[in-house]
Please model this.
Amino acid sequence: MSGQSTSTELNGFYAWTHTLEGLYYGPGSTSTALPKLLDTLGASKALVVTGNSLYQKTDVVKKVEGILRDQNRYAATFHDIGEHSPISGIRAGAEAFKKSGADIIVSVGGGSPIDASKAIIYFLHEELGGEFRRQIAIPTTLSAAEYSIGAGYTDDAGEKTAVSSPYLAPAGIILDAELTLATPERLWLSTGIRALDHAVETLYRPFVVPPLKLLCYGAIVDLFKYLPKSREDPNDIHARQKLQVAAWMSLWPVRLEKYSPLGLSHALGHRLGATYGIPHGFTSCLTLAPTVKLKAKVASEEDKEWLAGALRQLGHPSTGSLDGDVVELSELIKGLVGNLGLKTSLDQYKVPRKDLPIIAERALGGRDEIHSAVVSFLEELYSSP
Model:
């Protein structure tokens, strides 16, 4: 394999997102960061948006409520956000926002409450007009929803859909590893694979500038290093904080000139998640490794180079060929999923085999040239773990 890169990415554009005013990180940072962000944003009353499990089974939401009450900035808490952000919860959340007298949302939890809050803001803007309402996100998983401008949710027909605007991304983010201690292990680790999915697919995502891809290399290295450490010792705050920063690097906030979807693994995950009730972390556990393996056959030379570079960043020697290096990276991802105890299968989630062609078709958006290859690797995901 030649050591000389053939990358043609010598022209481009980069800008920060429209909305982000500040990101604070560090164990225990919420108590000081939340009041600072509220001051920066000129917010007076906050609606806390979260999921029922986090609200009922942990004290995480109570801690956030307490900080808001101490500041006399607490309006109410809405905790009816389900997995994959059903539209019914979003509608109810928008009504709760209006009734509470809040002027900002503080979301607490994983990708579902953060995306649901973006959708609530979108529909409030559609209904009420004026400036977009704003959100401060306090994530407790590694799904990285807080860095994107899109909001995925499940519509009335059970299909995954989305809204998008540059003004939907959170205006403030707090990465506080102490608030992640109550996150169930499999949720924490599987969303770490989701972050890995972001980082890997950003390596071949259109319109992404090279410096962001180098950040993704850093994310990949830290996710491979600290996810096993976090499994070894779930109370290791240092590892958890490093993982939160790695998730940040995996989907660095960026304002792109053109729409740029992440890639096939994510597209498949959206189709599998909403329709069959598979958590997004576990869709990445299923689809990322085989997607990377497929890239060895169908990707451009430039995309293969970026993927092969990840192998070298992980300290693994080249196999001697570009295609071989991409396949080897796929094997390392597969091995990490297995070592974390996250190996799963489509039959475990009762995905009918007869649905595979339509799943592939919808994920590919009409790219018929690789349809049969995608169906084939989905077939391979039926063997029991």
